[in-house]
Amino acid sequence: MIKNNSKFNVVIIGSGFSGLTAADMCAGHNLSILLMDENIHLGGQLLRKIPDNLGEPPDQKNDPIKKTGFSFIEKVKEKQITLMNKTVLLGVYEDNTLLCEYDRKKTLSIKYDVLLFATGARERFLPFKGWTLPGVYSTGMLQVLIKSSGLLPAQKTLMAGSGLFLYAAAYEYIKNKGKLLGIMELSPFFNKIKFLPQVIHQYPKFIEGAKYLSKIIRSRVPVKYRRQVIEARGENSLQEVVVGKVDQNGELISGSEKTYQTESLVVGFGFVPNIEAPQMAGCRLEYSQEKGGWTVVVNDWMETTVENILAAGEITGIGGAHKSLNEGKIAAYRILEKFRLEDTDRLAPVLKKLQKERQHHLSFVKCFNSLYKIKSRTILGIPDDTIICRCESIDMKSIKEAIQLGCNSPNGLKMSTRCAMGPCQGRTCAPVIYDLLQVLCQKDPKEIGLFSVRPPFKPVSIHALNHPYKSESPKGL
């Protein structure tokens, strides 16, 4: 455990592919480096793995990107890097200071010369009636259960949603001997064909996807396209799921409903970047549907608009592990150059190659996020009695009424309805609310804006507050 007010040359927030890569490359240059992460283990969601005594270990031979990631974890552990797991970032302040909570026991401040945000992404949801029932899980939660504990949520499940991660989750579930009743894909089958031009530069992704699809086909799992969950039903827990077909505009086709008896339902609609920390730091953000929503603006060196703060990975555009790995390398080179530990001329050809690779990744990002956009008709079709904000139990009707009264901004809705004021601080409902405002108000996302952030932007334990911290007003207020 480091001391309060400790100073580091480089602080990296997030130990996914970007964070691990940057930490590994910056180590060994007489720099003091801190790698911080909320989770118990390094590696982020993709590199979680079942403990050896609980289940089948990951097949690294057939998964080169995971093999690379696990090797980074081992190298980082052996190098002169300060690792702080179970550490939550609570605030970013003007004087190059971070406020953190360690292991829900104490708060402490950390100073830095250079800061790299590699905070990754979180799941995106499309609310439906009954989605708060016990037995309804996210695709990410499914993988956490499988990879961390070797558990399945149920022996039989139905999967629904949109995006490539849906198939990764299905693969994990089937591989761990679960019975998958079907995959209900919201987007049309034609979207898969549109990915073909990306094969040249994204070959590893297609090999990985083919592995998932092969397992699903061999297991005789039905995959149905243009399907949307209408309702999850059950008295005390999930018992059945109603699914309907949607047309090309995303509107439900009357009479197409079908009911599935199931023990659990796993849903996922892709990801949105975790931009709250960069937002608090005062970094410029931009909205781009092609990048997955609100992202951090960076230059070719992965530098943000705030001096000595960089960003890499999913927060610059949802694009997967290969993009994160690439951007982590670019950020590391820039950090080393800042400390005059790398020669600019020597770096030029290396950087040119990395930036060319990044453009290919960004091309995939543009294609992927454009194809899996949730249509306006689908969002408008959410019934009035559907819960939108789970923490505060705010339903669709309350959101619509507040908008009709003139609360046509995120903060206006928050003050009027209390949405996004619960323990998750809007991490679940905010993307849905942004979409609702955009559709119902017919406004550009840039005009609508974002929920404001201020420290602590994640819940902090009472015990940790026994160690108060004072500083100047934080950025981003």
Written overview of the protein:
By secondary structure, the chain is of the alpha/beta class. The protein contains 14 helices and 21 strands. Strand 5 and strand 6 (106-117) form a beta hairpin. Helix 4 (165-175) crosses helix 6 (203-218). The chain is globular. The two termini are 30 Å apart. The relative contact order is 0.14.
Which secondary structure elements does this structure contain, and how are they paired or packed?
Elements: E1 6-13, H1 17-26, E2 33-36, H2 64-78, E3 82-84, E4 87-93, E5 97-102, E6 106-117, E7 121-123, E8 136-138, H3 139-149, E9 156-161, H4 165-175, E10 179-185, H5 190-193, H6 203-218, E11 223-225, E12 227-233, E13 240-245, E14 258-261, E15 264-268, E16 271-273, H7 276-280, E17 285-288, E18 293-296, E19 309-311, H8 321-338, H9 344-371, H10 376-380, E20 387-389, E21 394-395, H11 396-404, H12 410-417, H13 430-441, H14 445-448
Parallel strand pairs: 1-2, 1-6, 2-3, 6-19, 8-15, 9-10, 9-15, 10-11
Antiparallel strand pairs: 4-5, 5-6, 7-16, 12-13, 13-14, 17-18, 20-21
Spell out the key features of this protein.
alpha/beta, Arc Repressor Mutant, subunit A, seven-stranded mixed sheet, disordered C terminus
Q: Count all strands and give the number.
A: 21
| CATH arch. level architecture of the largest domain | 3-Layer(bba) Sandwich
The CATH class of the largest domain turns out to be Alpha Beta
Low-confidence stretches: 52-58, 469-477
- Which range does the strand content fall in? 15-25%
Helical content class: 25-40%
Number of domains: 3
Number of helices: 14
**For this structure, what is the CATH homologous superfamily of the largest domain?**
FAD/NAD(P)-binding domain
User: Whole-Å distance between the termini?
Assistant: 30 Å
Indicate the structural class. Answer: alpha/beta
The CATH topology assignment of the largest domain is FAD/NAD(P)-binding domain
Looking at the structure, what is the overall shape? globular
Main sheet attributes: strand count, strand direction, barrel closure: 7 strands, mixed
Mean pLDDT: 87
Instruction: Please tell me how large the radius of gyration is.
Output: 22 Å
